[in-house]
Amino acid sequence: MVQQRRFYRQIIIRYIQTPVQEPDNLDYEIDYIYQVLGLGDERDDVGRHVFRALVKASKRGEGISSRDLMALSEVSQAAIIYHLNLFQRSGLVIKEGRNYVLRGYTLENTLGELENDMHRRFESLKEIARKIEGKER
């Protein structure tokens, strides 16, 4: 029997005060989304760097490879791959060939996909709750 590996998607939605709108500060807004999604905090420079690069590549309609990410900073490929794998497990990123892209190809679409995932999961949980409470439809 072949044992399947299971990957659990996990997104933690944190309540962080909405940032004050700063004109033309794209990095600040990307960092805000990064923190709200529970992907890291202000101390996680590598994760923030990788997430920013993915979002900026998506704005150009492109993917980005781990080597490209490594060239943008002085971070090891292992650290970059670690974060890319984390983003894949969270459902944010998919791999296409050698490149990594946001799951919905744009940040807005990707967030919409995550929202849909959450709604489906909650509907399933509510169905189980109805069964437990003897209120099956």
Write up what this structure looks like.
It contains five helices and three strands, in the order ααβααββα. With 137 residues, the chain is mainly alpha-helical. It has a single domain, classed as Arc Repressor Mutant, subunit A. Strands 1-3-2 form a three-stranded antiparallel sheet. The protein is globular and about 60 Å long. The mean pLDDT is 88.
Task: Annotate the secondary structure layout.
Elements: H1 26-36, H2 45-59, E1 64-65, H3 66-71, H4 77-90, E2 93-96, E3 99-102, H5 107-132
Antiparallel strand pairs: 1-3, 2-3
Helix pairs in contact: 1-2, 2-4
In short:
The chain is mainly alpha-helical and 137 residues long.
Helix and strand pattern:
HHEHHEEH
Counted up, domains total 1
CATH homologous superfamily identity:
Winged helix-like DNA-binding domain superfamily/Winged helix DNA-binding domain
Helix/sheet category: mainly alpha
- Look up the CATH topology: Arc Repressor Mutant, subunit A
Main sheet summary: 3 strands, antiparallel
Outline, from the CA principal axes?
Answer: globular
For the record, give the distance between the C-alpha atoms at the N and C termini, rounded to a whole number. Answer: 37 Å
- Quote the beta fraction: 5-15%
Helix content estimate: 40-55%
Radius of gyration from the CA trace? 17 Å
Mean pLDDT: 88
By DSSP, the count of extended strands is 3
Number of helices: 5
Report the oligomer: single chain
Biggest sheet, spatial arrangement of strands: 1-3-2
| CATH class label | Mainly Alpha
CATH architecture designation? Orthogonal Bundle
